[in-house]
Write a structure and sequence with these properties.
globular, seven-stranded mixed β-sheet, 11 strands, mainly beta
């Protein structure tokens, strides 16, 4: 079975940093584009970043561009989201996810999801 184990969330002050990790198992990780999405009660689910299977191309939502960096280590079946200069509006549950068919930006198109990790930056 495909499993995605997300970790690294926590409570941080405005302007601080966190690094999220997502370890995959049960799949050919290096063949798949990977994404991080976040869910907030008021805004629904947003795709914040994505990376292609080779780690060459990345996508960032405008709200995080310049502050978040997505990378992957295919030898360790892990994708990392470095989040700097965190803001209260970054508070959300963060999920790693992928669809074997390719890279998508819409939450409904993702087939496999991790369990989510909470990131909180109080106002």
């Amino acid at each position: 079975d495909v499993q995605l184990q997300a970790s690294g969330g926590g409570l941080v002050q405005d302007g601080e940093s966190l690094r999220l990790s997502c370890a995959a198992s049960g799949c050919d990780f290096s063949s798949y584009d990977m994404s991080w999405l976040r869910q907030t009660p008021g805004k629904g689910v947003e795709c914040v970043s994505a990376i292609d299977s080779g780690g060459i191309s990345t996508y960032y939502a405008g709200s995080v561009k310049g502050r978040f960096t997505l990378s992957r280590d295919n030898a360790k079946n892990t994708v990392f989201l470095q989040m700097n200069s965190l803001k209260p509006e970054d508070t959300a549950v963060y999920y790693c996810a992928f669809n074997p068919d390719g890279m998508y930006m819409i939450a409904s198109r993702f087939r496999y999801w991790g369990q989510g990790t909470q990131v909180t930056s109080p106002a």
